[in-house]
Specification:
This protein is an alpha/beta fold and about 260 residues long. Helices cover about 35% and strands about 15% of the residues.
Length: about 260
């Protein structure tokens, strides 16, 4: 009896807590996306997670860049995977952002060093929301483990990749996408996720309760036109566990954090 009471208490605590915050690509509106400069700003806001996009260079180095090509956010051109790390490091990752011309494409190791050092001196720690764009599970896990960030971070990717990651690192906190209610049962059976990255527009109170009843968290992206105060409040009312946003300071202010 005590076991069941404890389970339902845990589910209740999940649903009653204020949503945690993930800074999407580290964005705070004060520095270019996916750079060490913007990650430092996000850390100062005490966000719970910093979302990063991991890709692999031609010589096997894990780097952080959202797009598959260099054109939009850097001074380079062409596919990221065709460039060796030393050449990528010659580029500016501050394209279009005055004052940030010296920002470089960070490696995963540099990001881990930054966050690990921050956590060393803080009681409230920040972890990584890993968007696995183009990366093999083994080197990804090894770097995160070296900085004591693997166990508490979350991993987003397509379902086949998440299955391969789970084989490499059984403790991985998987976070598959969830686009509609009908996917819940099959995805739980196949992946045993820690959380769902759920489509905000499809979420209902009933869906959230069903997911929480399985001891799984509900994360959602509030980006672009969805990144507004009314949706932060609705997310809290629905009992969501995490909001991913480009405006973490506004979310904090809205939720009185």
């Amino acid at each position: 009896m005590k076991k069941y009471l404890l389970f339902f208490l845990c589910v209740s605590l999940i649903s009653l807590a204020q949503p945690r915050i993930s800074a999407h690509r580290g964005n705070t509106g004060r520095a270019p996306e996916n750079t060490l400069a913007t990650y430092k700003n996000a850390l100062k806001l005490r966000v719970n997670f910093i979302e990063i996009d991991v890709r692999t260079s031609a010589d096997g180095k894990l780097i952080i860049l959202h797009d598959g090509t260099l054109n939009r956010t850097t001074t380079g051109e062409g596919p990221v995977k065709n460039q060796v790390f030393s050449e990528l490091k010659k580029l500016s990752a501050g394209k279009g952002h005055a004052g940030f011309e010296k920002e470089k494409i960070p490696s995963l190791e540099e990001v881990c060093q930054l966050i690990s050092h921050w956590n060393k001196w803080r009681s409230k720690k920040t972890f990584i929301y890993v968007d696995c764009k183009e990366v093999a599970p083994k080197p990804l896990v090894e770097i995160l483990q070296n900085y004591d960030l693997a166990n508490e971070s979350c991993f987003y990717g397509n379902d086949p990749f998440l299955l391969s990651l789970k084989k490499e690192f059984p403790q991985a906190r998987l976070m598959p996408s969830l686009r509609k209610k009908e996917e819940i049962t099959a995805k739980i059976a196949a992946l045993h996720p820690y959380a769902f990255d759920a489509n905000f527009l499809s979420l209902t109170g009933e869906m959230v309760k069903e997911i929480h009843a399985a001891d799984i968290r509900v994360f959602t992206d509030l980006l672009g036109p969805l990144d507004i105060v009314t949706n932060y409040k609705k997310a809290a009312e629905l009992g969501l566990d995490l909001i991913q946003t480009d405006k973490p300071a506004l979310v904090l202010k809205t939720l009185n954090r």
